Amino acid sequence: MEDIRTIKQRFEIIGNDIKLNRAIEKAVQVAPTDFTVLITGESGVGKEIFPRIIHSFSARKHAQYIAVNCGGIPEGTIDSELFGHEKGSFTGALSDRKGYFEVSDGGTIFLDEVGELPLSTQAKLLRVLEAGEFIRVGSSKVQKTNVRVIAATNVDLPAAVKNGKFREDLYYRINTIPISIPALRDRKEDISLLFRKFAADFAEKYRMPPIRLTEDAVQILENYRWPGNVRELKNITEQISILEQERTVDALRLKEYLPAQNNTLPALTSNPESDHSFATEREILYKILFDMKKDMNDLKHLVYDIMQKEHTIKPEPEPSTSIVLRNLYETPQSEFLGQAPQKTISVEKNNHIEDTEAVVEESLSLEEKEKEMIVKALEKNHGKRKLAAQDLGISERTLYRKLKEYDIEI
């Protein structure tokens, strides 16, 4: 049996990560058996290499090896591709056709993106795995096949089973031997090795000196999250190899090729179990307006306190505090939840302010105004929450929460 270093050279695997080495060892160990293998890992980690390792170390290595991308075949033709069809079984079926399971009889079939298979096809695949039987499309004749199945997916299959998108019995059948491939971000020490290998390959391909990275650029490379994994690293290395005239790249230059990972705007997160989650942009705007309104109320309190300390208000020019207060209270508020315009403060020029405290208290009671508008909307729509929510410009879910908050009975 070849050692792991020889296997890496043979299949051009770069890296010394412990998890990667363990995945290779499991592939070699399971190869002599006929167990079904499920390979999992993020997109771009190189899952397609491991079925070839298993096939090459198995007793089927001289037989047919077929790799099928299940996600790339339309749902209407997937059964025909996998199991074949009879002449005339559907429009365009001008002759009999063998499917992949028939062609690979005695060999190995690799089903990539197995999580994308339709449920009807999953049932037929389960029959192949359990009984070695299949039926061509348009036929009633049961055929036998002796094929080793290796599957791969980047989908969370247990979650897909829970959601009814993947058969539970099929999941346990293909998950006989699981092999997990680590993401590139979890193999930091391998990132610079892979970059140098890709840079050397592209230098030879395009007949130019290889790209080299400064130490600070290597740090940037290793700290990047690589959502596209090895595939993304290879693509970026090729871009740099073609576009850069200077063959030594520093951190500042390298950042131009890496997608920005940080947003300048705060992320809006949603928790389905939280009462503060927002279903629509309208509700997000609704909350922002509430926050702005609270800030405005604080400012009104501040202005009112200032005016209380003033003993006189000069007739000309109008004092700044009076102008600020008038602007605050003369601002129309009808846009907010359909409220009617609020009363304005009457500031007389005879050094006397009338009913200031009463008006301030009225305008500060935002909750009462909101409760009043909700009650009016419900009365207008005869207690129908959906119509009332539409009038208020909020979702029915938000209205329901407000009814509970204000203890409003319909």
From TrEMBL:
Keywords recorded for this protein, A-Z: ATP-binding, DNA-binding, Nucleotide-binding, Transcription, Transcription regulation
Organism of this sequence: Butyricimonas faecihominis
One GO term (biological process): regulation of DNA-templated transcription
GO molecular function terms listed in the Swiss-Prot or TrEMBL record: ATP binding; sequence-specific DNA binding
InterPro entries assigned to the protein according to its UniProt record, in alphabetical order: AAA+_ATPase, AAA_lid_NorR, Homeodomain-like_sf, HTH_Fis, P-loop_NTPase, Sigma_54_int, Sigma_54_int_dom_ATP-bd_1, Sigma_54_int_dom_ATP-bd_2
PROSITE patterns: SIGMA54_INTERACT_1, SIGMA54_INTERACT_2, SIGMA54_INTERACT_3, SIGMA54_INTERACT_4
Domain Sigma-54 factor interaction: 13-242
The UniProt record lists the keyword Cytoplasm: no
Protein name, entry field: Transcriptional regulator with PAS, ATPase and Fis domain
